[in-house]
Write a structure and sequence with these properties.
The chain has 641 residues and is an alpha/beta fold. Helices cover 25% and strands 29% of the residues. The strands form 5 sheets. Strands 11, 12, 13, 18, 19, 20, 21, 22, 23, 26, 27, 28 and 29 form a 13-stranded mixed β-sheet that branches. A 9-stranded mixed β-sheet has the order 3-4-1-2-7-6-5-25-24. The N and C termini lie far apart (75 Å).
């Protein structure tokens, strides 16, 4: 008794073809339909593979597929260069010996290997051949696969993968295009640090006068406000609630926050603030001198009075010193200008703190200055966190809240992370409490395996993770349960409608596109797995994010490589990636805070920095889940408060 992998054409229409590949156990070499001309029996390396040329009856097998997976490829005609789209659907059948909960994993692993960039088959023969060889040699738990190839007559729309500011910096050779939107994005990213035209000119190679025009346009629209020393910062609506201070005022014991929320993007800060009641915001601006230069400007210069004064952390040198000399013989007076080294004003680590209430708890929320992969950005993020915890020393719990990139599951609806869902950092292994991971480096071996150098972070106290687990359990088990975070999202959306230029409404569902890299900068579009018909509790409802519990990871090496990111996620069970926040977590643990949670609303399938359209909504989703978690916490004891 030996196994054979038999390929048979099953169905053909004007625009589609269906092919069946099944595993058969035969006692002798078969002669299908009694005619040797109808079959081809492979030999050599392909022994055990049989090609049946005759189409079978369409009623050959009525048993429905146990799992299906659909994706779209973009084809190019080799003769005339025209493009077309083809939808390919894989249907899977498994033996009864394979547990139902393992079927989705087998199907997903099979699909990932089928479309691996290293050897993705770019013609029909290679595509079918690879499926047969995988079924024959590696995926012996698959009994049968059917492949439907269907031409799509819709207009060609090639997938566009947006490039983030941080990714552009990493690539080096790319240059950001100066635009009003990009300048506003950079100002929001740097907030609360102000920016000058010279900052942007040096960082991005833009013309100073062109940048100044963009600043003026944004100021006229009320989006930025001018500081002194030629700096600009984000204009916050309801600006009268913001107090600019040299140092934080003393707070009474009852007003001391016990929970800190750290955000990195401007829309994340707005989303969290919409969840806080009785809030007041304090901003402390600082400047540092840098980069000596020679200024040839005449001493007879004038400057307008600044709208907002900055609090300086050091003394800046004057650009020029004027001296007056009187000639007694000719009674003439001359003024000379002496050139001195000029120190350009660089605005350093300013701080913004919003204090208020969520339920019975006092909250402080801050926004990090620009985060990313540069050492300067990571150091600033760690310093800001240390200053936060040093200023508010009664903080016991810390949340890192904002956007992230999801890890999709192509075949299992319950484990599939979609845009707008929320991932809460959670340990999945019983022997450790790792909830956040940073990949310092990754190496690909000649065998195809990978070695990852990681830093792992574990809170001593998992009380926040336990609360999230109970919330998810209740939402999944109780079909009539109304998740509190859904109501908080609605309330937050009302608060944000008139307060921000960002659109926090959910983007159209069709904008949630899922792509896989197949090498040579080519991608295929993969359909999202369908909801189970027999499990209504897991079905998504509009305006209600799904909560997922898993470790969250980061690291520039894996965030830029689709295959490494997939392998890392599979090995360590991660369901989300974010911008590098390891310096922040280092500071939290270094300041002896035993309980922290990273909460990421999913904005894209990378690291959260690419999906601009989904970032506001994803931020609001994460903030609403955090409010639900805080509301479920025990109120602080009167003695502690």
């Amino acid at each position: 008794m030996h196994e054979q992998i038999v390929m048979t054409p099953k169905c053909k229409t004007a625009n589609s073809t269906t092919i069946m590949i099944e595993r058969r156990r035969q006692a002798a070499e078969p002669v299908l339909n009694g005619n040797k001309d109808d079959i081809h029996i492979a030999g050599g390396d392909h022994k055990g593979i049989i090609i049946n040329k005759q189409m079978i009856d369409n009623n050959h097998e009525n048993k429905p597929a146990q799992i299906s997976l659909k994706f779209i490829v973009f084809l190019v005609d080799a003769q005339n260069g025209t493009h077309s789209q083809e939808q390919r659907t894989l249907f899977f059948w498994f033996p009864d010996t394979l547990m139902p909960e393992n079927r989705a994993t087998v199907a997903q692993d099979f699909f990932k290997e089928l479309v691996s960039p290293l050897e993705f088959p770019r013609d029909y023969v290679g595509f079918i051949k690879k499926i047969m060889k995988l079924v024959q040699n590696k995926y012996t738990s698959i009994d049968r696969i059917e492949i439907e190839l269907k031409q799509i007559d819709e207009p060609i729309e090639f997938p566009v993968r947006p490039v983030s500011t941080d990714e552009t910096i990493l690539e080096g050779e790319q240059k950001l295009e100066l635009s009003r939107e990009k300048v506003l994005e950079l100002i929001e990213s740097a907030y609360p640090n102000p920016l000058t035209t010279q900052d942007l000119a040096e960082d991005h190679g833009w013309d100073i006068e062109a940048i100044a025009k963009k600043f003026i346009e944004l100021e006229k629209d009320g989006l930025v406000m001018a500081m002194d020393k030629g700096a600009y910062t984000r204009a916050v609506q309801k600006n009268n609630q913001i107090k600019v201070v040299k140092q934080m005022p003393q707070l009474s014991s009852a007003k001391q926050p016990t929970i800190a929320i750290i955000t990195a993007q401007y829309c994340e800060k707005l989303a969290v603030d919409s969840m806080i009641e009785n809030k007041e915001t304090f901003v402390r601006y600082t400047t540092v001198g840098s980069e000596k230069d020679v200024d040839n400007t005449s001493s007879s210069s004038s400057s307008s009075s600044p709208t907002n004064q900055l609090v300086y952390s050091n003394t800046l040198e004057l650009d020029n010193t004027s001296s007056t000399t009187t000639n007694t013989t000719s009674t003439t007076t001359t003024t000379t200008t002496t050139k001195h080294p000029r120190r350009r004003v660089r605005f350093g680590e300013s701080n913004v703190y919003t204090l208020g209430d969520i339920g019975a708890h006092r909250i402080v929320c801050t926004k990090l200055p620009t985060v990313g992969h540069t050492r300067e950005a990571m150091t600033a993020a760690g310093n800001t966190t240390t200053r936060l915890l040093g200023t508010f020393q009664k903080v016991d719990y810390v949340f890192l809240v904002g956007v992230g990139g999801g890890v999709p599951h192509y075949t299992d609806y319950k484990r599939h992370v979609r845009l707008g869902d929320v991932v809460v950092s959670y340990p999945i292994r019983t022997h450790n409490k790792v909830v956040y991971m940073y990949c310092e480096d990754a190496r690909v071996l000649s065998s195809g395996g990978c070695i990852f150098d990681t830093k792992e972070y574990s809170p001593t106290n998992l009380s926040l993770q336990n609360i999230a687990s109970e919330m998810k359990k209740q939402a999944n088990l109780d079909e009539g349960f109304s998740p509190p975070w859904q109501n908080y999202m609605r309330e937050g959306l009302k608060n944000l409608i008139n307060e921000s230029e960002h659109n926090f409404e959910a983007p159209p569902a069709e904008s949630d596109k899922l792509y896989m890299n197949i090498g040579e900068q080519d991608v295929i579009e993969v359909s999202h797995p369908s909801a189970p018909k027999d499990d209504a509790a897991y079905a998504r409802s509009d305006g209600c994010p799904q909560i997922h519990l898993a470790p969250i990871a980061s690291g520039r090496r894996i965030s830029r490589d689709d295959q490494l990111r997939q392998k890392f996620a599979s090995r360590f069970g991660c369901l989300a990636f974010d911008a590098e926040m390891d310096a922040v977590v280092d500071s939290i643990l270094g300041n002896c805070r035993d309980s922290f949670a990273v909460v990421r609303g999913i904005a894209d399938y990378k690291d959260g920095s690419r999906g601009k359209e989904w970032q506001p909504y994803a931020s609001l989703a994460a903030a609403s889940v955090v409010k639900a978690m805080i509301s479920a916490m025990d109120p602080p004891s009167p003695m502690r408060k």
